Amino acid sequence: MNEPVPTRLSTTRTAHRAVLVVFALAGITFATWASRLPDIKAVLDLTPGELGVTLLAGSVGALLALPLAGRVADRVGTTGAVLIGTVLGGIGITGIGLGTEVVGSRAVVSAALLATSAGVSLWDVAMNLQAATVERALGRSVMPLYHASFSAGTVLAALLGAALVALDVPVLLHLSLVATFAVGVVLAAVRAFVSDPRSAVGAGEGPARSAWTERRTVLVGVFVLVAAFTEGTANDWIAVAFVEGHGVPAWAGVVAFACFLSAMTLGRVLGTRLLDRYGRVRVLAPMLLVAAVGSLLVVLAPPLPAYLGTLLWGFGVSLGFPVGMSAAADDPARATARMSVVATIGYGAFIAGPPALGFLGDHVGVLRALLLVAVLITLALLTLGSVAEEDESVGRRTALDPTPKESSGR
Questions:
Q1: Do the beta carbons of residue 235 and residue 283 sit within 8 Å?
Q2: Which domain covers residue 124, as residue numbers?
Q3: Across 176-196, average pLDDT
Q4: Taking the CA of residue 50 as centre, how many other CA atoms within 13 Å lie in the half-sphere pointing to its CB?
Q5: What is the pLDDT of residue 328?
Q6: Residue 19 lies in a domain
Q7: Is residue 2 part of a domain?
Q8: CB within 8 A of 156, min separation 6: which ones?
């Protein structure tokens, strides 16, 4: 025990840094194409409803990939699954650029979005499984840090996107360069991943089926669904809403998107210590209320206060998704089965969200359609108890003692 512990701890810390990088690259990949949505909409001359249906293809890709993600990770490990997802996602976002500027086809863009979302979804589940393994090894609530890294990647990509939009850089050039960069960096980073314990990956067919009958797992899935909807709605529509609803130029719409992502990143960085000190429920309840107020400001206030609303909205929803994923993985022996269920339910928001907002936007405008966010946050508050740890007194470990522990319990 004298020599293996430092070795294991060093390996875990290296894996921790690698997971941070992989999450950041996933965020960059996602936000890169999302930052060009106003351009894609304009080039293809799409109505809000048509854009919603186009985005639906991405939702279908996600839901096709999510139920298979656990099995893929079981077969090839989280390292292999992340790599497969990264390559597929890179091919997909390049295809979005080709479909927009070279072919000029909504059908090609839809097919590319399907491939992108399928790849990123596989990548997402696999990296969350690796993150849960590393989190248990460290013995601290670090999952929000990984999702903060994802958010930081989205902020970087959104700011870059705003600059490139202002400079009239072609969509295809932008997306293809990011795709190449992401694949290369992820290929190097995953070499530091820790081995997948059989308790975390490959739990077998039985647990994967029975997890659907567990009340808590389903409720966590519903909570994650609302969290994904409140995030995804902003990701897909906030730039368009500011451009069409508040009358700002395209680059300023992307800045609103960047404000949302920046606040979400800050919330996730601060959230790690807050969760360890106070527990999940006490932290999430007021933050969700802040998100509701922020979303209402975005819709109902003039442009300047609306930008403040993007900050409140982003900060308030920041912890919902990562806490839901940690809750799904509380029991290492059933982490894969439960995370697969929770992810499948949660990502249902990406099936319902884009078309629902698009069709609603056709009737009341994209900006006013965002009122749906505040309504659904009520559902998140009703299911909040499902994500509580069995012993939140352990979860409220003092932030003044950040010493990593080798035990798997929190």
A1: no
A2: 8-188+201-395
A3: 91
A4: 13
A5: 87
A6: yes
A7: no
A8: 24, 27, 28, 31
